[in-house]
Amino acid sequence: MTNFDRAFEQAKNLVEDFQSNESKYLSSDYQEAEVRRDFIDKFLFALGWDVYHNEQKNPYEQEVKVEKSVHVGRQQKRADYAFHLQPNYRDVKFYVEAKKPSKNLYNADDYWQTCRYGWNAGNTIVVLTDFEEFHILDCRIRPDISTILDNKIKQFHFTDYLNKEKFAEIFWLFSREAVADNSLEKFAVSLPKPRGKAIQKGFFKGGYQSIDEAFLEELDEIRDSLARAFKKSNPHLESDELTEMIQRTIDRLVFIRFLEDKQIEPDHYVSEFGDSKTAWKDFLVSSRKLNAKYNGIVFKKSSIDSNNIIEPDDKTFSNICEELAHINSPYNFDIIPIHILGSIYERFLGKVVVATDKRVRIEEKPEVRKAGGVYYTPQYIVNYIVDNTVGKLIEGKTPKEISKMRFADISCGSGSFLITVFDRLLDYHGKWYQQNPEQAKKDKCIEHDGKWVLSLKQKQKILTNNIYGVDLDHQAVEVTQLSLYLKLLEDETTATAYETWVMFKEQLLPSLSDNIVCGNSLIGTDIIDGRLFDWDNEKKLKPMNFEDAFPKVMGKGGFDAIVGNPPYGAELYDDEYLSQKYFYASKLKEINSFLFFIEKSWKLLNNEGKMGYIVPDTILLKIQYEKFRKFLRNETNIFEIIELGTVFQQAKATPNILLFINKTFINQNTIITRKQINPNQTISKILDDFRIRNWFAEGKISYSEWDKFPNLQLGRYVQKEKVRLIEKIMDHQSVICLGNFDSINIDRGLEGGKSSLLENYSKGMYRIIIPENVDRYSITEEPLYYTSEIKPSFLYDRIVLIRIRNTKIEQRLVASIIPKKIATLKTLQQIYLIKKNKIDLKYLLALINSTLLNFYCSHFLTDDVNKDYINQLPLPLNLDSYEKHNQIARLVENIIDAKKNKIKSIIESEKEYLEKKCSTLDRQIDKLVYELYGLTEEEIKIVEGTEIKE
User: Fold this and answer.
1) DSSP classification of residue 687
2) CA 13 vs CA 1, 10, 156, 174, 800: distances in Å
3) In the chain, helix, strand, coil percent, each to 5?
4) Does residue 707 lie in a domain region?
5) Furthest-apart CA pair in the chain: how many Å?
């Protein structure tokens, strides 16, 4: 019997039981707890879920959980069921909300409540059921009580469970078997998609909006309203003051709503601001009260508490509080994942308040505008980096051993990486104590429903012992602290908070001023020595010494792990200073801020430390970064490279990698593992399922092999057979790198672009070739441009190359010969013979266009066609015999003629014939080139991709 057949039989039995006493079950006396016990639990069990925890006894590893209490209006209510899939017990796959059968399910209050759970958790659909009926609701829509009944996708009556086809709809969507096979994701694909401008705004057809987009939009509106209100009441306030005041106000409102929804505070605050005095005065009074209890940066006295500040008009602030109040707000801070709040804040911090004499406006920060936006690291990538650094380091260790470890993000932003580090530490400690109950008792853990949980004091110690962060932006530092505080209190209750506050006489939030600091991770205070620095420059630069900021950490050798997403292309203040401090990152023709962060992080690690960063893949591909790769090769121990593809879609489509480094170099036989993953899937899904389905490739290379190929594209899958083949090519007795051949020169064309060219010819002008004119073995006539400039190199016949054309199948060099006295632009590289010798330019052209050389380039050289790139081409220029040389040159003459005739021809049959002729000539050239390099038949198959050996 299949799982479906078994579930169908169990459902039929439940229907028969319900029908046998239907009047009883539909009476108002039959309560929700009873219908859950008698029918709903059993129905979900029939769908394959371990509702009774018969199999999953470890309370930290259970797929079916009862959610914590939440507020709906002034009522307390529990979200009844939350479903997860191992091993990810953090993210909810879907919710089921239960009601008693006597109540009509089709009502706005229950729909609003149920959809609110799913929307805040980022789910697609939720279920509302009383067993008599089963409603599937769309929770992509921001809950709106006036239209919430439109969210119904489908409903079933309990008699539908007797119909095999109708029951199948439920089973193949919500059974454990189906959910594990991505049924919910597949179902989501069938729902309406975003279109047009709705995509940019985060809306879907029908007004759908994700939780992060909706809350970010609301925060933006609050910031704008507060900025205008504060400025109107206090015309003297300037940009920085307004930005800081508004940030602190919003932080407090969010934190208070979090305390309310988590039931850490038993009373409601936000909804009652204005009941006693003005809303603003009530807000300040509550802030002082909460500061005494919680401490931390959130309620710490600041400019908004000053008597010199005139409060914003009451109507504006009252409206803000009314919109955010638990009674009206669709946001449930008990359910919104902390990392989602972090992603919202990351984008929110990208803008600041700009004040003039009488007005204010909101603008993107200059660095954000330059970068084209804020790029928040997807959570699945954060998870993978943390799991493979911090996770590996704490594995098998006791809480006492872990207490001595230090983990950091030195460009922490809103704190997404540090939140995840803290989450992993809390999760690990909880599981460890569950397996070691005697120690849990000694360490004063709390036993709750058979589960050992960490006390608030224990979590405080983990936070202050283990977590460290730095950022140049003071707002980011505050938000990171706020986020860590939210994580700290995530599982607390009114009772546990009260115990810590009253019984232990301790404030609930520890100070993080020594853990999360504002400063410049790259520049120390020695930059000021001997220089005249004005205050404006110094406060912008914020120089900082790690030895001063974290003396205990650095005194013990440094951090155990550094993780993060370092800034790419950030403005660097002082090149001279950086060149003195960063030997490897500054000794480059082209530098980028992420290189300095890698080198700095490496210096800050202790001898057993690990680093995990997401960086552009150019670090592995560009010849300009060869010296930095030598640093990675000689000084560090790279243990894994993950190829991600394009993660940040708006960032000029730059592909990214995950780079993992151990501080200590081990030996020549160290293996670097490279994996390729699909960014649209979760890491856990890839590692669990994709290996079986061969949906990602894995390659390994040792350091000793890397020594032979310093420009090897480590970010790409290179099979052992290919490595050996390239080694054979480079070691061939006739091969010379093009740059070492003194009869050949390489340069670029004229400066400028198309806008500097002329389209009309006049006497004395030269025709000019642009990249669009260049094809393999041919030059097209259109479009025609002219110039009066000429360079000495234009007096030679030349080979011109354009950028590699990337396709799914191959990456090719595209080259052709142009005759002398024809000009080119700087975008084209040129190769020409400066001395008379026996090597024909057509012979060089054949080698460059050959399949073999393109195979070499696609695996072992950068994607940029530049002089360094061309200099490294391994060509058989030390000829023992000219027979093949002349034969290849003649074939090139034939293919050039055939290409010219094809361009001129207007008859389709002639074009087809000439195309086939060119293909034949190409194959003949390739055959001769293989012979020049001495390739075997097996090696030729590897080059042409007809034989892949795993």
Assistant:
1) I
2) 16, 5, 17, 19, 78
3) 45, 15, 35
4) no
5) 105
* Pairwise CA distance, residues 43 & 120, whole Å: 26
C-alpha span between 491 and 458 (Å, rounded): 13
Residue 606 · residue 559 · CB < 8 Å: yes
Could you tell me if 756 and 806 lie in one domain? yes
Instruction: Please identify, among 521, 538, 554, the residue that sits at the C-terminal boundary of a domain.
Output: 554
Our measurement of the distance from residue 289's CA atom to the centroid of its chain's CA atoms, rounded to an integer in Å, reads 39
- Clarify whether residues 181 and 216 are in a common domain: no
Residues 796 and 929 in one domain: yes
199 Cβ partners below 8 Å, 6+ apart? Answer: none
Domain that holds residue 427: 411-554
For residue 642, CA distances in Å to 212, 393, 602, 675 come to 27, 19, 19, 5
- Dihedral through CA 234, CA 236, CA 239, CA 242, nearest 10? -30
Q: Write down the pLDDT at residue 378.
A: 85
Query: Are 352 and 439 in the same domain?
Result: no
Structure tokens at 20: 């046998």
* CATH label of the domain that carries residue 900: 3.90.220.10
Q: 610 with 393: CB under 8 angstroms?
A: yes
User: CA dihedral defined by 862, 866, 867, 871, rounded to 10 degrees?
Assistant: 30
**Backbone phi and psi for residue 735, each to the nearest 5 degrees, phi listed first:** -85, 135
Round to whole Å and give the CA distance between 442 and 162.
54
Q: Which two tokens stand for residue 706?
A: 């890397």
pTM: 0.76
Same domain, 20 and 110: yes
How far, in Å, CA of 218 to CA of 347, rounded? 13
Residues 6 or more apart whose CB falls under 8 angstroms from that of 3 comprise 48, 175, 177
Q: For residue 896, tell me if it sits in a domain.
A: yes
H-run or E-run covering 618? helix 618-621
State in Å, rounded, how far the first CA of the chain is from the last one: 39
Alpha-carbon gap, residue 520 to 525, rounded angstroms:
9
221 & 367 share domain: yes
CB 32 within 8 A of CB 100: yes
* 348 and 216 Cβ atoms separated by less than 8 Å: yes
- Residue-level pLDDT at 652: 54
Q: Has residue 678 been placed in a domain?
A: no
Collect all residues with Cβ–Cβ distance below 8 Å to 724 and sequence separation of at least 6: none
Mean pLDDT of the residues in the chain: 83
Q: How many CB atoms lie within 10 A of CB 751?
A: 9
User: Are 813 and 801 spatial neighbours (Cβ–Cβ below 8 Å)?
Assistant: yes
Q: Give the separation between CA 472 and CA 461, rounded to whole angstroms.
A: 26
- Cβ-based neighbour number of residue 359 at 10 Å: 11
Q: Are residues 29 and 144 in the same domain?
A: yes
Q: Determine, yes or no, domain membership for 117.
A: yes
Residues 838-848 pLDDT 10s: 788 999 999 99
As given in the structure block, the two tokens for residue 261 are 């929804």
Residue 79 above 80 pLDDT? no
**Which amino acid would we find at residue 581?**
K
Nearest-angstrom CA–CA distance, 511 and 296 = 5
In angstroms, the CA 118 to CA 208 distance is 13
Q: What is the DSSP letter of 548?
A: H
Assigned token pair, 922: 């190409």
Please report, to the nearest 10 degrees, the dihedral formed by the alpha carbons of residues 897, 899, 901, 905 taken in order: 180
Per-residue pLDDT tens over the stretch 676-713 = 444 333 333 333 322 222 222 344 555 555 555 555 54
Q: pLDDT per residue over 230-246, tens digit each?
A: 999 999 888 888 998 99
Domain boundary among 371, 399, 426: 371
Domain count, the chain: 4
Q: Residue 774's closest CA among 801, 807, 737, 809? A: 801
pLDDT value of position 862: 55
> Do 159 and 232 have their domain in common?
no
**DSSP 8-state class, residue 498:** H
Give whole-number Cα distances, 844 to 122, 858, 873, in Å: 58, 19, 11
